[in-house]
């Protein structure tokens, strides 16, 4: 059938390298099957790299199954259940994008179809910190950027990174960086001035 001939079925060098690197960035973009084993995988699968000449590329899992390849038990390319790493990555990506909004553990758990308890444990095991800690780190990084690159008021910065209370923002900022936001901004301005002056003095 001509419909089956579409871009996405070719083993390009880019895809081959993704398979060799177990590159998760290519997951869901294509699947690869191995003729000799009859099994198909996600690009990120940690299984032994196949011989290049035995590889076939599919745009989706259904296509591979139509051709009678079986899903790999390790990377579960057809599974509703994602590998933990991928699951945690999805949550992290969501936080990266929505940090300025109200985010709770319960909301995240709802979004990714898991219990808050499971989310908390899995995320922490994969990322080393809890989802809420991850969110706070992201917010602090964005706040630091605003403190240095803009002259917005602290309350405006606090709300722009998702804190409803400026005083809570200040408390948390101090706990995480050792300085209040105002001192952080001042300290950086002083440092930049000093560097500028030293620079002028050099012949
Ligand atoms: Zn696999």
UniProtKB/TrEMBL annotation:
Q: Which GO terms describe its molecular function?
A: DNA-binding transcription factor activity; methyltransferase activity; sequence-specific DNA binding; zinc ion binding
Give cofactor(s), names only. Answer: Zn(2+)
Q: Name one Pfam family in it.
A: HTH_18
InterPro entries given in the database record: Ada-like_dom_sf, Ada_DNA_repair_Zn-bd, Homeodomain-like_sf, HTH_AraC, HTH_AraC-typ_CS, Me-P-triester_DNA_alkyl-Trfase, Tscrpt_reg_AraC-type_HTH
What region holds the HTH araC/xylS-type domain? 89-187
Keywords linked to the UniProt accession: Activator, DNA damage, DNA repair, DNA-binding, Metal-binding, Methyltransferase, Transcription, Transcription regulation, Transferase, Zinc
Q: Which GO terms describe its biological process?
A: DNA alkylation repair; methylation
- What is the name attached to this protein's record? Methylphosphotriester-DNA--protein-cysteine methyltransferase family protein
């Amino acid at each position: 059938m001509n419909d089956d001939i579409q871009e996405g079925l070719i083993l390009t060098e880019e895809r081959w390298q993704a398979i060799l690197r177990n590159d998760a960035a290519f997951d869901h973009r294509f699947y690869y099957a191995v003729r000799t084993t009859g099994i198909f995988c996600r690009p990120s699968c940690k299984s032994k790299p196949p011989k290049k000449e035995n590889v076939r590329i599919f745009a989706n899992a259904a296509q591979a199954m139509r051709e009678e390849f079986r899903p790999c038990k390790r990377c579960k390319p057809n599974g509703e259940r994602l590998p933990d790493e991928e699951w945690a990555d999805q949550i992290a990506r969501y936080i990266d994008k929505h940090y300025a909004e109200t985010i709770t553990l319960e909301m995240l758990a709802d979004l990714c179809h898991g219990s808050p308890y499971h989310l908390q444990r899995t995320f922490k095991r994969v990322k080393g910190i809890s989802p809420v800690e991850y969110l706070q780190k992201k917010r602090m990084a964005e706040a630091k950027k605003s403190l240095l690159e803009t002259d917005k008021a602290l309350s405006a910065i606090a709300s722009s990174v998702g804190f409803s209370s400026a005083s809570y923002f200040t408390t948390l900022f101090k706990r995480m960086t050792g300085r209040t936001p105002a001192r952080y901004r001042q300290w950086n301005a002083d440092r930049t001035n000093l560097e500028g002056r030293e620079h002028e003095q050099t012949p």
